[in-house]
Specification:
Elements: E1 4-7, H1 17-32, E2 36-41, H2 51-64, E3 73-74, H3 79-91, E4 95-98, H4 102-114, E5 134-137, E6 145-149, E7 153-157, E8 166-170, E9 173-174, H5 176-186, E10 191-195, H6 202-212, E11 218-222, E12 225-226, H7 242-248, H8 252-260, H9 275-281, E13 292-293, H10 296-309, H11 312-319, H12 329-342, H13 352-360, H14 377-393, H15 401-411, H16 416-428, H17 436-443, H18 445-458
Parallel strand pairs: 1-2, 2-3, 10-11, 12-13
Antiparallel strand pairs: 4-5, 5-8, 6-7, 8-9
The protein binds one RNA strand of 75 nucleotides through helix 4, strand 7, strand 13, helix 10 and helix 16.
Length: 460
RNA sequence: GGCCUCAUCGUCUAGUCUGGUCUAGGACACACGGUUCUCAUCCGUGGAACUCGGGUUCAAAUCCCGAUGAGGCCA
């Protein structure tokens, strides 16, 4: 069978992590089977759909490297197709116009719930040829609707509980369940892989496929991505847009890798996978049934792993956008060295400015910070003076980490911290930072001496 | 409320289909220790889970039933 999958987001919000994960699984499955993966924008809800959201979805998928085949399909461009199918259904008496008002329907629903019935509307106006009102499916199916879910096995529904479900607001305004069925069939989607929240839509869609004589796709319902409180991931759990992760300085490959492992695993102990490896290994029967919490901490770890693996030049390019404070041209040349120092310390690129600001401007810190263990001011000052005198003798081309380390350690006492801690703080102004030799190599001789002097001055 | 889905360390999960090799494995996080000052990296050590109750069986995390819990959809 020719494998063809799709992701069908509505442009009513930014690209959601849940949507991205579904897209990812569809992509992985299609590519694993040398099939196609397409993007269909479900923009029939004119009120809520916006072009900027479509742009965001497109940008987000591209950023993640979830590439679709062919052109983007938009439901708004397929209205004629829906109309044709709707007319057929109407003509064959399988659909009808429902004259009931929203108020009447609400009333009916209320009664049903009160009497512990499943809320549904089975219309008493099925036979009438009205020509306006909501178009509904005439549902008089009696036999159980069954389908085999690739992840969950056989699932059954009682069709009587569905009622005469709605298909369209009018001939040119199709509703979700109807449009999806027409699209998936006419676009020859072989596998519908989507979130678990769509399981309950499936029987309606199957009934429609049967009524229209359309090919039924293979269904696979993915477990949901959950927030900390185990409910479906949503805005109140914090960042849910892929764009937010980009802005925080997560690398697309890291997010890609992390999302792939949410609800799926290869059955081996490896955790870091390239896109290629994931395509090669992905299989639908290793997908979980249970929902998975989006664990930010683990994402951070994985992102750190990817940052460390990244070639320095590329990392520098990616990092440039994260500095809010102005960096002069002369400072730009040391950016590469600075980032090299921070590379093993980073979890995400947004940490960069705060971690590296002291390379670009004079540090501000409390004199207390210069003190290591029980040192008094005099010993701190002595240490700094020693450091300065060593530095003054170093030739400009001797300002390398290796050379400085050799010179300083030769002069350091038994407790190296007495020399190294005050020196490091004088240079960085920070409690946590790279080592003093690395910093001096980047800063250069003059600037290093300047900062040591500033520290000595603070002690007076 | 009705229907549907799910259930192993705090979290992601392996193991479940094809019962024994599981005194339940890995990773993240956490704690402790090591790696020429701090942090990070790297390395090591540790604590930490089969939701509960029945049943089947010589044997159940694994099969069956029930309960409970969690989630989803429907308005």
């Amino acid at each position: 069978m020719r494998v063809k999958t799709r992701i069908a987001p509505s442009p009513t919000g930014y690209l959601h992590v849940g949507t991205a994960r579904t897209a990812l699984f569809n992509y992985l499955f299609a590519k694993h089977n040398s099939g196609e993966f397409i993007l269909r924008i479900e923009d029939t809800d004119i009120e809520r759909s916006e072009a900027k959201f479509e742009d965001d979805i497109v940008a987000g998928l591209k950023w993640l490297g979830i590439n679709w085949d062919g052109e983007i399909t938009r439901q708004s461009e397929r209205i004629d197709i829906y109309e044709t199918y709707l007319k057929t259904l109407l003509a064959d008496g399988m659909a009808f116009y429902c004259p009931h008002s929203q108020a009447e329907l609400d009333e009916e629903r209320k009664k049903q719930v009160a009497n512990k019935f499943s809320p549904q509307h089975t219309c008493d106006a099925r036979g009438k040829k009205l020509g306006k009102g909501l178009i509904r499916f005439k549902n008089d199916t009696e036999k159980t609707v069954k389908f085999k879910d690739e992840i969950r096995g056989e699932i059954e529904f009682d069709p009587a509980l569905l009622g005469d479900f709605s298909l369209a607001k009018d001939l040119r305004t199709p509703l979700y369940n109807f449009a999806v069925v027409v699209d998936d069939a006419t676009m020859e989607i072989s596998h519908v892989i989507r979130g678990e929240d769509h399981i309950s839509n499936t029987p309606k869609q199957i009934l429609l496929e049967e009524a229209l004589g359309l090919q039924q796709p293979i269904f696979a319902h993915l477990p949901l991505i959950l927030g900390k409180d185990r409910s479906k991931l949503s805005k109140r759990h914090g960042a849910t847009s892929v764009i937010d992760y980009k802005n925080e300085g997560y690398l697309p490959d890291a997010l890609f890798n992390f999302m792939a492992l949410l609800g799926w695993n290869p059955g081996r102990e490896q955790e870091i996978f390239s896109k290629k490896e994931l395509i090669k290994e992905f299989s639908i029967d290793r997908v979980q049934g249970a929902g998975a919490i989006f664990d930010m901490t683990k994402l951070d770890w994985m992102n750190g792993e990817y940052i460390r693996k990244k070639p320095l030049k590329e990392l520098v390019e990616l990092s440039k956008g994260f500095f809010q404070f102005p960096i002069s041209n002369s400072q730009f040349s040391m950016l590469e060295k600075v980032i090299a120092l921070e590379q093993p310390r980073l979890k995400k690129l947004s940490e960069l400015p705060e971690k590296t600001d002291s390379f670009f401007k004079e540090p501000e810190y409390d004199a207390e910070l210069l003190k290591w263990k029980q040192m008094d001011n005099l010993t701190i000052k002595n240490s700094l003076e020693t450091a300065k005198s060593i530095l003054q003798l170093v030739a400009e081309n001797g300002m390398t980490k290796e050379n400085l380390e050799k010179l300083f350690l030769a002069k350091a006492g038994k407790d190296r911290g007495e020399l190294l801690w005050p020196l490091r703080v004088a240079l960085s102004g920070k409690k946590f930072s790279p080592g003093p030799f690395e910093i001096m190599e980047v800063l250069g001789k003059d600037k290093s001496i300047l900062r040591i002097n500033a520290a000595i001055f603070m002690l007076k």
